[in-house]
Amino acid sequence: MAKMLTTAMIMHPMVRDELMREDHLARLERAVSLISREPLRNFSELDGRLSSIEVLITSWGCPPIDASIVERMPRLRLIAHLAGSVKGFLDDVVWRRGILVTNAVAANAVPVAEFTLAAILFANKRVIEFNRFYVNERESRVPWTKEVANVGNYRKTVGIVGASHVGRLVIDHLKRFDLRVLLYDPYVTSMASRDLGVERVSLAELLARSDVVSLHAPLLPETRHMLSARELALIPDGATLINTARGGLIEPNALDAELQKGRIFAFLDTTEPEVLPKTSSLYDMPNVFLTPHITGSLGRETERLSDYIVAEIERYARGAALKYLVRREHLPRLA
Predict the structure, then answer these.
(1) Is 293 a catalytic site residue?
(2) pLDDT band at 2; cut points 50, 70, 90
(3) Using CA atoms, how far apart are residues 194 and 265, in angstroms rounded to an integer?
């Protein structure tokens, strides 16, 4: 029988308790040699065992892995990050040493895409308007075409900004509906967009043609405030802007000014700043639906992160290719 890979978990104990079920731990123990079911808080707790570790399971609460740590772990072959981005967490020496890295970004994308799909369908069904009208007037005015024009999802156009993990999942969900889908992503080729089943367009064209604009780009220096006053003005009257990505993608003063006009709607799960001040006018705008950054994994959804990472470690232990490999060359354009 082949020797099992010596594996350690380094994370805050609360993270393991929230994300890992008993069956996750049992599967890990069948796949690798887990030195302890209890996660360690820092590398000093491994004492003289650092040199024997071949697989490292990390998550929130793990100290950054720099060159000095890597130097003390000559047998390390895989870092499985039970969380999202590894940017700023792993030193470049990890990739130079040929250590493989995987994470749970794809798992966290699932609930974000689900929320986004619901927001798109609600937006075209004009749920915000119907809710406000019904609560205020307390009567029905079927068929509503006078009070709420252009209602419904049939043959509407949805613009997806960014073919990220979330963006691609949203695109896949939208295939089940009678919707046109536009995509803006400078890294996606025309052939790749055809494979996705979308029409690749410029950002300006996407904004001008869409009934719903949904943001899924990473927040990078080149994408910060990619939507300012000029871009927001391109969005048609009655259209909806959805942001489940990062608040910094939209220039906040321009967003506030455009929404104050009341001509467009917004579903905002992320804003700049992340927590709006109590005096923010966004709280009281009738055309804005706010949520406090809840689209990512919450409650039972967090266990999906362990589903993905445990499966990755099982694949690695039996010599199969990793499904969610993080590549060094992709880091500059990842969130």
Answers:
(1) yes
(2) low
(3) 30
